[in-house]
Amino acid sequence: FSLPMAWMNQTLVTEFFVQGFSEAPHLRFLFFFLFLSLYTVALSGNILIFVTISFNSTLHTPMYFFLVNLAVVDVLCTSTILPKLLENMMGRKTISFAGCMAQLYFFTWSLGAELLLFTAMAYDRYVAICHPLHYSTMMSKKVCLLLSTGVWSISILNTSINSSLMFRLSFCHSNVVNHFFCEIPPLLKLSCTPTYLNETMAFTADVFLAVGNFIITMLSYACIISSILKIRTTEGKKRAFSTCSSHLIVVSMYYSTVIYTYIRPSSSYSLDKDKIVSVIYTSVAPTLNPLIYTLRNKEVKAGLKKVFSFFKR
Q1: For residue 292, what are the CA distances in angstroms to 75, 82, 262?
Q2: pTM for the full predicted model
Q3: Which of 15, 110, 127, 281 qualifies as a cystine partner to 76, CB 3.0-4.6 A?
């Protein structure tokens, strides 16, 4: 009895050596402080949003329901990537094969869920502004649960397929990951077996999840802006445009970086540049989301005061 050659080759790699974000020794503590700060703000901000919305019945509306889902996704994303990155900066640069695949699975899961949630949130705002009289029907509790179930189910299906395809590869050339975490592009670079199927799946998923959802989101906001322009008061227009512009900046930044990373063939990857791009959707966006979507909101501020006053008792 003999094992298939691909499996034999794959089992040669029991752990990966992750190069990290920067190999410059004099920048190590600076980057450690930077990523520790990002993780602390992202974790505390998203947990605070989750608690505030969950314990305030006045915030139990479709918009805040999706924001709770976004907070969960952001905690999942940052907790999958940043603790291991901080450990890497402290000197432990290895990760087991199983740990690497787990990191890939949970990161890809959170990535897909975030893209889909942006679309669900854009649809919610579209209904609220363009069809306010039908909002309670079009965004009923049942519809929100269906949208949420779809977001998590599709993202789980996507990451399950991509992760399963990664297990079919053999890693026998090198175990050095030129990145700061286990992501699809740098891992494909290490494979000594054909990666065409993996690249095709990653490309297809990116077209569907990133490009497709980005187009839907932009169309939703085109309709929203058209409706805003019909508002008579200047103050009303400014308030609505302020909300839209903040959302569009984050969405555009997030989508553009994901599309840039995943929609190219592996031969064109520039992993050193990709590290900087990856920071945006793994660290910066999850940190900014609570600040942009909720902490500037008067209703959320009122909810936060209730939460703080409760803990002061």
Answers
A1: 16, 21, 26
A2: 0.87
A3: 110
